[in-house]
């Protein structure tokens, strides 16, 4: 089945540093790709998504580009803030039934941003 | 609008006991999903309801797990009897249309239930 692999954490950065969290995928067909974020004590929230090759998803200063040639969807942010400390999950949509889809997640990458 | 709510937020039980987790999806969302994250591992799909019907339960780990969605509103996930390896965070999500890959049908997640089996 389809799957994603993301870099292991934890990642610790100083405020205003550049962030990259790598994510690669294995898929048949052309899944949609997502980044979800889980802030402490909260549920998963959709951060951004891309539904086809070369699409760029962006939100809150984060961005990721759907790269079919390298099967990647790396998350980047130019200048992180303390409030970005959270766990980030890469995910793709996977067909699970005649009419249904589900998300396949990576293991999550914990990010800690220090002042 | 109220989000997806899950109850309880935490549960600590002994091996062999029974636990029931509850999920209230966003009102009007026909699609309801259960996921689980075991410590240090991926968030795994468990099953998918469309209204009260189980659309796919291929991710359910074994027959100790039983999910229901009577009336197509809230859902429960019962673990009986619980084992140590069932510890983890159980997430519920709902969406209006089927498929997180489709436009305008994002998954809305609850805060999860952290289950600890001792």
List the main descriptive attributes of the protein structure presented here:
heterodimer, A: 115 residues, mainly beta, four-stranded antiparallel β-sheet, 12 strands, 0% helix, 52% strand, B: 118 residues, seven-stranded mixed β-sheet, globular
Separation of termini of chain B? 37 Å
User: What's the helix-strand series of chain B?
Assistant: EEEEEEEEEEE
Tell me the greatest interface. A-B, 28 and 32 residues
Q: What global shape of chain A is seen?
A: globular
What do these coordinates show?
The complex is a heterodimer of chains A (115) and B (118). Chain A is mainly beta. Helices cover 0% and strands 52% of the residues of chain A. In chain A, the strands form three sheets. In chain A, strands 2, 5, 6, 10, 11 and 12 form a six-stranded mixed β-sheet that branches. By secondary structure, chain B is mainly beta. Helix content of chain B is 0%, strand content 47%. Chain B is built from no helices and eleven strands. In chain B, a hairpin with a 2-residue loop joins strand 5 (43-50) and strand 6.
Q: Which helices and strands appear, and what pairs or packs with what?
A:
The complex is a heterodimer of chains A (115) and B (118).
Chain A: E1 3-6, E2 11-14, E3 19-21, E4 23-26, E5 33-38, E6 44-50, E7 56-59, E8 62-65, E9 75-77, E10 86-95, E11 101-105, E12 109-114
Chain B: E1 5-7, E2 10-13, E3 19-24, E4 31-37, E5 43-50, E6 53-56, E7 65-68, E8 75-79, E9 88-95, E10 108-109, E11 113-117
Parallel strand pairs in B: 2-11
Antiparallel strand pairs in B: 1-3, 3-8, 4-5, 4-9, 5-6, 7-8, 9-10, 9-11
